[in-house]
Amino acid sequence: MCIHSFPPFLTVALTGTPGTGKTQVSKLLEKDGYSVLHLTEFIAECNISVERDVERDCNIVDMDALEEAVLSFQNKIRGGFERKIKEHNFSDEAFLQFTRDPKNLPMLIIESHMAHCLCDLAVVLRSHPTVLKERLDARGYSERKVHENVMSEAIDVVLCDCYDYCRRVYEIDNSSLKLSETADCVKEIVHALYEDEFLKFRSYLSKNGENIPDLTGGGTEPPSGLTVVEEEGVVIYESDYDDAMDETHPVLIKYVPGKNDWSNLVD
Questions:
Q1: Cβ contacts of residue 162 below 8 Å, gap of 6+?
Q2: pLDDT confidence bin for 97, thresholds 50/70/90
Q3: ω into residue 18 within 30 of 0, thus cis?
Q4: N or C: which end of the chain has fewer CB within 10 A?
Q5: pTM of the shown model
Q6: Averaged pLDDT score across all residues of the chain
Q7: Which annotated residues bind ATP (predicted)?
């Protein structure tokens, strides 16, 4: 079961093993007008409890507090998009055209190696272990930390974690890509993903004989058979339509995981 507003507001994780370029790529996206939440900075700004794991040379975050803070932030962003949408009277085609402008895309991209724990959609940046090792060595990571992250990438640890939390997962192998090229791949995914989510949810409601809300949010009765919640003026529907989600979008098919097998590099 997943929560959706209509029209959908999506929260997408931009995740991956440390060193795969998440932060740099997300800053390029942010510069182009996409809504991006940098989780490491957000944790510090919200004074969320963090404990240091000295042995593993990493931080342990209070995930309950983080989830609550992210949800509050997400609701504010989503409410802003909802108010913007209500200013127009869109057809479906016009609305999707409107969302092609990054500033109008009803989506929050959360950047972090643990962002997928907070989202139900994920884009995973991947790098060949040899390339990743070079990047981590250049950062001055300890030998143990470099080895742990390289081995994690080789056996798909982050990718596999995504399948525990997310209903739709895509990957980009950026081993030989420039940062700008990786950012372009992310853009391609998120716009195709938004279009696909919008049309599939619209179709789901139509096939089930529901009264589909108009895009201005005015005067329509909530669809029957769905649990309805209202948060900060945004109508949210809970449904099980995701259980039947099949990957058919030609753009998204290109990024379906399964093309990289680096397990032979594990020592």
A1: 13, 15, 116, 122, 124, 169
A2: very high
A3: no
A4: C
A5: 0.85
A6: 83
A7: 19, 21-23, 139
Beta bridge partner(s), residue 234: 231
Give pLDDT tens digits for 12-56. 999 999 999 999 999 999 999 999 999 989 988 888 876 665 565
Task: State the CB neighbour count (10 A cutoff) for residue 169.
Answer: 22
pLDDT tens digits, residue range 111-140?
A: 999 899 999 899 999 999 999 999 999 999
First-last CA distance in the chain: 39
19 labelled ligand-binding: yes
For residue 198, the surrounding DSSP H or E stretch is helix 179-207
Q: Determine the CATH number of domain 2-265.
A: 3.40.50.300
CA 53 to CA 88: how far, in whole Å? 50
State the burial class of residue 162 (Cβ atoms within 10 Å of its Cβ: 0-12, 13-18, 19+).
Answer: buried
For residue 217, is pLDDT > 90? no
CA 29-85-230 angle, 5° bins: 100
For the chain, give the number of residues: 267
Hey, what are 47's tokens? 């004074």
Structure tokens at 172: 């980009």
Q: Which three-class secondary structure state does DSSP give residue 117?
A: helix
Do residues 234 and 9 make contact, with C-beta atoms less than 8 angstroms apart? Answer: yes
23 is in an annotated binding site: yes
What are the sequence ranges of the domains in the chain? 2-265
3-state SS assignment for residue 26: helix
Which two tokens mark 139? Answer: 């950062």
